[in-house]
Amino acid sequence: MKARITVTLKNGVLDPQGRAIANALHSLGFGGVEDVRQGKLIEVELKAADEAAAQTELDAMCRQLLANPVIENYRVELL
Amino acid sequence: MKSAVIVFPGSNCDRDAAVTLEAVTGVKPVMVWHGDEALPKVDLIVLPGGFSYGDYLRSGAMAAQSPIVRAVKAEAERGVAVLGICNGFQILTETGLLPGALMRNSGLNFICRDVDLIVERTDTAFTNAYTQGERVTIPIAHKDGSYFAEDETLDRIEGEGQVVFRYAPTPEGASGNPNGSRRDIAGLIDRTGRIMGLMPHPERAADAALGGIDGRRLFESLTRTLN
Questions:
Q1: Scanning A26, A35, B135, B227, which has its CA 20 to 30 A from the CA of B213?
Q2: Are strands B163-167 and B111-119 parallel, antiparallel or unpaired?
């Protein structure tokens, strides 16, 4: 089974990389860009009995290691 | 005072910490490898600066899950003092031993230079050789040193006196905060007063031949308290 995990900074947490990208886009002439947030994409291949078991395990991985709950949110998609 | 320095793959201030500890305490610290599962009996554990496990995923995230850090947590719960410097501070927040998180510097650059700090508290095991409100100069060298915690957490830790070092304003009164840390926080202590994390490197400012001695008193404070 394959899963895609997206980790993003929580709203309200300063994202200096996102801001730098927004500035670069502005300087390229994309004046309509209002905000950019940068995150991480993590793909996991795993063996699991079914989708529900995979979802539970992936959720545990995110909480224990892949995302820092102080600053980040995560989203898990099974592919 | 007996001490241990934890060595992770990617630690690069472990020997600086060891040299300073030996110079100040007269006792050579034990160097402990990250894959070990137990610690010798010591009074102080140092998590040194560097880039543990290459800082993959997030700074300090992998180290926080290592076998030795589980042992460090157990020792901390028994009351052994723990000092996390730079990457060590990141590891302490990742393990939850200290609140908050350390994020990319607001200017996105790696910053390596001297900064001035204000000593906010001197009634701790780590700072009793300083004077209250004193301005000290200690170098920083980091890319992920911007301290973040939510307002609620910040109010709580300030209320409980957990902020020990703050980036000092310039003599003209402008902000001297190098990395965007919330409320200019450079160093924190936990509620028990036994665990401290700081982004600047006191072990690199403990010998006049290396350009400064303001960091030395942090190790002298520990020696005085833990002997």
A1: B227
A2: antiparallel
pLDDT at A62 over 90: yes
Size of interface A-B (CB pairs under 8 A): 37
B86 is catalytic: yes
Asked whether the predicted pLDDT for residue A12 surpasses 90, the reply is no
- The pLDDT, as a whole number, for residue B123 is 96
Residues of A with CB under 8 A from a CB of B: 13-14, 16-17, 20, 64-66, 68, 70-71
Backbone region of residue B72 per phi and psi (left: phi > 0; alpha: psi in -120 to 50; beta: other values): alpha
Q: What CA–CA distance (Å, rounded) separates B217 from B56?
A: 33
Radius of gyration of chain A (CA): 16
Q: Is the pLDDT of residue A20 over 90?
A: yes
Q: Give the CA distances from residue A33 to residues A20, A42, B127, in Å, rounded to whole numbers and listed in that order.
A: 12, 26, 47
- B 70-129 residues inside an 8 A Cβ radius of A: 93-94, 99-101, 103-108
ipTM: 0.88
Binary contact (B148, A70; C-beta < 8 A): yes
Q: Comparing C-alpha atoms, which of B33, B26, B29, B43 is closest to residue B11?
A: B33
Amino acid letter, A62: C
pTM, two decimals, is: 0.95
Check CB contact under 8 Å for A17 and B104. yes
Contacts of A72 (CB under 8 A, 6+ apart): A7, A8, A9, A10
Looking up tokens 């979802």 gives: A55
Helix, strand, coil % over all residues of chain A, rounded to 5:
35, 30, 35
What CA–CA distance (Å, rounded) separates A28 from B185? 36
Strands B135-142 and B81-85: unpaired
Which chain A residues are within 8 Å of B179, Cβ to Cβ? none
